[in-house]
Write a structure and sequence with these properties.
- The protein contains two helices and ten strands.
- The protein has two domains: about 60 residues; about 110 residues, 3-layer Sandwich (Rieske Iron-sulfur Protein).
- The strands form three sheets. A four-stranded antiparallel β-sheet has the order 5-6-7-8, with no helix packed on it. It has a three-stranded antiparallel β-sheet with strand order 1-10-9, with no helix packed on it.
- The chain is an alpha+beta fold.
- Bound molecules: FE2/S2 (inorganic) cluster.
- The site of FE2/S2 (inorganic) cluster has 11 residues, from loops.
């Protein structure tokens, strides 16, 4: 590098130092301040967006995650059932599952034991799920698929079913019989 070049660089540095009394530190401070303010504004904006979005997210996502409502369904006046005589009842109810609300049609077999006791059976055989029927002559439930026979109380009398008939939860309230979800055995 020539002596002239050194002189020129030296003069330039001297000029810049004179223009910026603390050697350019103010410019650096200004840049840092700007960067800090930009970051702060960005973070504040993000926080406000999150605050505003939280209720919307809660409103839109929560129902989708909500499990289906379990409910007891009114299937008729308890006094209308005859003790010791099983009867098949078809009923329907609205089930809400997340966003979806749909009508569910279901059947059950109601066996009124006396004025305060009742058994309500699932209409599906506990072997492979076929529908069964009540044989008035023998006072038994019979499944046509593989010859299962159940007593009026739902106990297995013959055939391949591994367990008695499944039962629904029940309650009697205000003279009405209500049927709930299937009881889980064991
Ligand atoms: S499904 Fe009823 S006996 Fe097999």
């Amino acid at each position: 590098m020539s002596e002239n070049t050194h002189d020129t660089v030296g003069e330039l540095n001297k000029y810049l130092s004179e223009q910026q009394p603390n050697g350019g530190n103010d410019q650096m401070d200004e840049m840092s301040r700007r960067k800090f303010m930009t970051t702060l504004l960005g973070m504040t904006g993000g926080a406000i967006t999150l605050l505003l979005a939280a209720p919307i997210v809660s409103y839109t996502v929560k129902p989708a995650l909500k499990k289906s409502d379990t409910q007891m369904v009114d299937v008729g006046n308890f006094s209308d059932f005859t003790a010791g005589k099983p009867v098949k009842v078809d009923y329907s109810f609205m089930r809400k599952d997340g966003w979806i609300e749909a009508e569910v049609k279901q059947s059950c077999w109601v066996l009124k034991k006396d004025d305060s006791n009742v058994k309500v059976f699932s209409p599906n055989c506990t072997h492979l799920g076929c529908g069964y029927s009540w044989d008035e002559a023998t006072q038994e439930f019979k499944c046509p698929c593989h010859g299962a026979v159940f007593s009026a109380d739902g106990e297995v009398k013959a055939g391949p079913p591994p367990r008695p008939l499944d039962q629904f939860e029940t309650k009697i309230e205000g003279g009405k019989l209500f049927v709930g979800k299937l009881k889980v055995e064991g």
